[in-house]
């Protein structure tokens, strides 16, 4: 925060609350969702060991970051336009890192939409699925 943005010491609680309310009026949910996706991707990179030390690796946290982005990204893709591709690419990198690190017996249960059985490509034998 800039020193210019800090409230003076003599500002009342009511004035501070009014200033906060004014800021909230300008914030859009879409902006918060975009920031959340970017934060999850950055944190996911660290938990994958891609942007930090090996001591930061945490597959459970990486999985949660991936799933969070998978849920939020469709809500903001239209607003992002061409920039959405960059976020999808980073998500794909995290998913690949997770797949490399997760051992077959430790993999998370399938997502709800995957739990209904194999899709047409997998049933036909044309889709390669690791571990199957």
Structure characterization notes:
With 132 residues, this protein is mainly alpha-helical. It has one domain (22-124). Helix content is 59%, strand content 0%. The protein has five helices and no strands. The chain is elongated and about 60 Å long.
Q: Give the domain tally.
A: 1
SS-based structural class?
mainly alpha
Into which percent range does the helicity of residues fall? 55-70%
Low-confidence stretches: none
* Spatial separation of the terminal alpha carbons: 52 Å
The sequence of SSEs as H and E is: HHHHH
Average pLDDT number: 82
Biggest sheet record: none
| Share in β-strands | under 5%
Q: Number of DSSP strands?
A: 0
Question: Measured on Cα atoms, how large is the radius of gyration?
Answer: 21 Å
The number of helical elements comes to 5
How would you sum up the global shape?
Answer: elongated
Which short descriptors sum up this protein?
mainly alpha; 132 residues
SSE layout and pairing:
Elements: H1 13-26, H2 29-47, H3 59-80, H4 84-101, H5 120-124
Concise synopsis of the structure shown:
Helix content is 59%, strand content 0%. The chain contains 5 helices and no strands.
């Amino acid at each position: 925060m800039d020193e210019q943005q800090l409230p003076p010491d003599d500002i009342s609680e009511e004035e501070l609350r009014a200033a906060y309310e004014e800021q909230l009026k300008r914030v859009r949910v879409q902006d918060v969702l975009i920031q959340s996706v970017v934060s999850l991707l950055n944190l996911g990179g660290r938990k994958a060991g891609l942007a930090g030390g090996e001591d930061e690796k945490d597959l459970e946290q990486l999985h949660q970051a991936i799933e969070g982005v998978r849920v939020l990204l469709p809500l903001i893709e239209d607003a992002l336009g061409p920039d959405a591709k960059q976020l999808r690419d980073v998500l794909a990198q995290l998913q690949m890192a997770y797949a490399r690190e997760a051992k077959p017996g430790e993999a998370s249960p399938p997502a709800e939409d995957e739990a209904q059985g194999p899709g047409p490509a997998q049933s036909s034998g044309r889709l390669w699925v690791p571990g199957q």
